Structure prediction request, 248 residues.
Amino acid sequence: ASAKRGSARSSRPRRWCTSSRAEGAPVAVTSAIGACTDRMLSRQRELVASFLDADPEVLTNALDAIERFDRELSRCEDPLFLAQYAAVDDADADRQAALDTLAQARQRLVLGQSAAGLRTLDGLVFRSDPIIALEHDLLRAGLEKLRGNFAQARALLEQGARDGLGADAPLLAAEWNVNYGDLLYAMGDLDGMAAPAERAWMLRRRYLGEDHIDTLVAEGARGHVPYARGDYDAALRLYRAAADRATA
Prediction:
């Protein structure tokens, strides 16, 4: 399988940078676009491979996975997102291979395939970069949560917070907070879930702007806290406020 992936990688289109949005753009921007689309191409291959050997989890999550892939692919043309995207040095083959592995595991997580995703992460051999280590722990925690291993998922997320110290990845940190808050909710820690929900919203608001769709999703998710406590009116106000701004 790794040989096939390597062959596909060498023959695939390397960049979207011939598009009108990329013409004349600074080298750093085109590099970020290339890094983003490289990862999405890795995910696309994993998505197609899963459809060729579909199991019940894939069939259940297929439509959502395709729609999510389209949404996340559009980020590769979003300057606010690209500004926070970790640049990839194409000459660093080990780091690039690690990023490909993370992209493949992320696709398996979206499809609900915990066993396949964990097997994919077992092949990750490059973890000296704190951003890669943080994303590894984040994805592995999500896959363990799918299996119902909440205590293990929490330990992995907390390990990710330690591994990611010093990493300049605010949007990945926001994703960590979203997942940590969701996990605490699943574990019944209603007091603990409030702080990560707030941090996720603040990080996205700071680095993406108040009106970015990801910021608005995080803003609305703050309503989960009063909802979990039975304050449905307060939850509905937060949900509606975010939804109204998203459609404005």
Q: What stands out?
A: Confidence is low (pLDDT under 50) at residues 1-25. The first helix runs from residue 2 to 11. The two ends are 46 Å apart (CA to CA). DSSP finds 13 helices and no strands in the chain.
